[in-house]
Design goal:
With 287 residues, this protein is of the alpha/beta class. The protein contains twelve helices and ten strands.
């Protein structure tokens, strides 16, 4: 970077992005283990003992692990070199239940970026919700992003924004995303316009048009969320198709932590993301 110095915050942002993305492929596989933040009992399946889950996933060597401020130290105190980078979740919300409470919210933790710096995070992540009939929650999300963006730039911390379109709760009952590209694409673009360094977005129902999501991101790398738990062959095939469409990587949670072999499925997905393995070849990791 011409004219940059080691104290330049934009140099440090690049340095952190280099820790997050594999230098050989320019892609990232981030395993999300931050589900306990959201006060939903079903979200704890597979991570009841989170220190053990972190150790298991870290040993499989994904590029990053997504954690909360309360649990990130379990990753950072592992006495190993080359461990996954930390992606720090910065917002807590109550929007995922099958029966929603009277008032919904999405709130930032205090001093989110500074806590990320202290925890040696490579990135911080924040939601941008689109929930039917809940514009106030979207407003809170935008306020959260607007508060984080200048601090991220000041401290050289990459900002990952997670545009998330929900189906109506009465129809889908809880954490059910809407794969309609006419809803996903403009929300992704809004996240880019708000200053995202990385986008974490849902797959479209028709994976073959995901290149349109990539296009609207305007060069900002797009990591694709895993969504609902799916069979191994399906999730591997979908991952391969998304990478072929131009996705810069994946962020999967339940498809890892609720799998009977979380380390093996992590290695299988890493083979697809970084080694160009076919879904059939990647399945051999699970044999």
């Amino acid at each position: 970077m011409i004219g940059a110095t080691f104290s330049d915050p934009f140099f440090m942002k690049t340095a952190r992005l280099n820790r997050l993305f594999n230098p050989a492929t320019g892609r990232c596989f981030d395993v999300a283990l931050d589900h306990g933040f959201f006060n939903e009992p079903s979200f704890l399946a597979g991570i009841e003992n989170l220190p053990a889950a972190i150790a298991t996933v870290a040993a499989a060597a994904p590029d990053a692990i997504q954690l909360t401020v309360g649990q990130a130290p379990h990753l950072q105190k592992l006495p190993v070199r080359g461990k996954p980078a930390l992606v720090l979740r910065t917002d807590v919300a109550n929007v995922y239940g099958t029966q929603l409470p009277r008032t919904l919210f999405s709130r930032l933790i205090a001093d989110a970026v500074l806590q990320g710096v202290r925890l040696d995070a490579a990135c911080v992540v924040v939601n941008l919700f689109r929930i039917p009939e809940q514009p106030e929650v979207t407003d809170q999300c935008i306020q959260n992003i607007c508060a984080l963006k200048p601090l991220c730039d000041h401290f050289g911390m990459p900002l990952m924004i997670e545009p998330l379109v929900f189906q109506p709760n009465a129809k889908a009952g809880g954490y059910m995303v809407d794969g309609d590209p006419t809803k996903i694409i403009p929300l992704v673009r809004q996240a880019v316009e708000l200053g995202a360094d990385i986008i974490k977005a849902d797959p479209t129902d028709d994976v073959s048009i995901y290149h349109k999501v990539i296009e609207t991101a305007g060069g900002i790398p797009v990591l694709v969320r895993g969504g609902s738990k799916a069979p191994e062959a399906e999730i591997l095939a979908r991952t391969a198709a998304l990478i072929a469409q131009g996705a810069a990587g994946i962020v999967y949670g339940r498809n890892i932590i609720q799998h009977p072999k979380p380390a093996a499925i992590t290695r299988a997905l890493m083979a697809v993301v970084h080694d160009g393995a076919t879904p059939a070849d990647a399945l051999k990791f699970l044999a």
